[in-house]
Amino acid sequence: ELTQVGYVARYALPIHHPRSYIDPGYQGTLGYGYPTAIGAAVGNPDRPVVSVTGDGGFGYGMSEMATVMAHDIPLVCVVFRDDAFGNVQRMHKQKFDGDFHGTTLVNPDFVALAAAYDMDGYRAESPDELRSHLSAAIDARKPALIDVPLGETPDPWPSVMRPHEG
Fold first, then answer.
1. Mean pLDDT of the chain
2. Which of 20, 49, 82, 88 has CB 3.0 to 4.6 Å from 41, enough for a Cys bridge?
3. b/e map of 12-34 (b: 16 or more CB within 10 Å)?
4. Number of domains within the chain
5. For residue 94, is it within any domain?
6. Structural domain span for residue 44
7. What is the pLDDT of residues 24-78, one digit of tens each?
């Protein structure tokens, strides 16, 4: 998905097996993550699938939670929530002396939303909680959503654009 976490994953996430990491490339396809993960989960029923998305991108396809539940697709979705289209908001602030418009999101309570779909919902407020919830959700082999509140996140571009060895 097109998120700060997604940008960093392109160079920092260790990938140990072919065909185990899918991303939209540099096409800027906000909203790509969750629906694509549904297809990956259906196409690979014996492998755990985790969708990593931001709240802005997830908003485009969150209604697909109904599809996941209707077909009992064991997909785990991790939503990194900054309550904004974070990259756009940061760019606005940088270019327009701190001003930004149309980038703040009004999100649902994602754990309550998961419960409304009869889906397991978790909130991870620390890396340890994320690790624990992710492990439990994958082991359960049923649909789940993990909400990860972040606040404002740093600019990923200096790390993404730096030269890498290897």
1. 86
2. 49
3. eeeeeeeeeeebbeeeeebbbbb
4. 1
5. yes
6. 4-161
7. 777 767 888 999 999 999 999 999 999 999 888 899 999 999 999 999 999 999 9
